[in-house]
Design a protein that fits this description.
It is built from two helices and 28 strands. Strand 24 and strand 25 form a beta hairpin. The termini are far apart. It has a five-stranded mixed β-sheet, covered by helices on one side. It is mostly beta strands. 14% of the residues lie in helices and 36% in strands.
Length: 434
Amino acid sequence: MLWNLKPQARAFRYVGHKDVVTSVQFSPHGNLLASASRDRTVRLWIPDKRGKSSEFKAHTAPVRSVDFSADGQLLVTASEDKSIKIWNMFRQRFLYSLYRHTHWVRCAKFSPDGRLIVSCSEDKTIKIWDTTNKQCVNNFSDSIGFANFVDFNPNGTCIASAGSDHTVKIWDIRVNKLLQHYQVHSCGVNCLSFHPSGNYLITASSDGTLKILDLLEGRLIYTLQGHTGPVFTVSFSKGGEMFTSGGADTQVLLWRTNFDELHCKDLNKRNLKRLHFDSPPHLLDIYPRTPHSHEGKIETVEINPKLEVIDLQISSPPVVDIFSFDSTTTTETTGRTLPEKGEDTSGYFLNPSLMSPEYSPTMKKKTEDLSDLPSESRSIPLAVTDALQHIMEQLNVLTQTVSILEQRLTLTEDKLKDCLENQHKLFSVVQQKS
């Protein structure tokens, strides 16, 4: 659902996925919307009323998360097939996979500078990946629970994890040290979001509350009780002046904040200057304190907006159903189709990640602007188009074959694991009898 809140609440409902949608995210320029689904596909949508989309197929199990790099050139997806896949947005094709997790991968996120990827899995590990050499460069493990969600702080020096064991942990990836450990929820933590300043963190939990943490002071400052059931997701706006939350009560709540007086653009400029592994500690970094258990009485301000805020939702908001038709179908690679003369170029995925503002979906381009596109995009001979189409079909067959092999390999791994466990049990029984 794509909502327009002015002048009144109305929405576009994009129909294309064949199963539950698990994750959505706007590209940095706002001209694309990525979505992941349990139907094992990822889709890129043009966020307008035409509903054009591009479907990516490479995962062999439900996809749990999508995330754009800060420059919009790459997309990372995490799946229950135990893999993380990276996609190129310029060519609209699959690049490579990362395999080291031994269980479902729940979330994967790019660092602010795009050099690292952090991922969390039900194998109770959090892994840091180097996008240059495609290797796992760091590993954080937990013996109690697993992380449902993980993300970098705005300057890229720390990661925060939302744990199924009711905890929120913040790690400094430069020194591999646990900086802060919060136990403020009574149920599993499903999602978290950093304020753009990096000084605050908001968490969403199955206990029905949102918690706002002051990371500089290392304490809980607000408890928000707007939802009547588990809260699944929360996210700050780009400037930090608002945040949204969504829960099992079928509500999306929009909140206004007043955290920092310092303008977020100034903070973002400072953060961009220090996006390196060896950057020295800075006053705006999270202070390296000892873990905060918060087992005592929590003295925080509890806010219940239902007592103060008028419910502005109407019984039947105007919703326009938009049924998607695929502009491209991506397996391992894909071709592109040029628009006809006089047609709006923003509806096609020519180079969405590198589009300048004038190429945004809200602007129309004249035909002479096509001269600015790469020379190979201006005209494609029919024979080349047919050859590319044939290659795509063959790659699609190859991808399906690889998917079947991956599924069989996964089943074999699980079967072997069960056999080893049974063998270990039998060995233990024999030892006890002897």
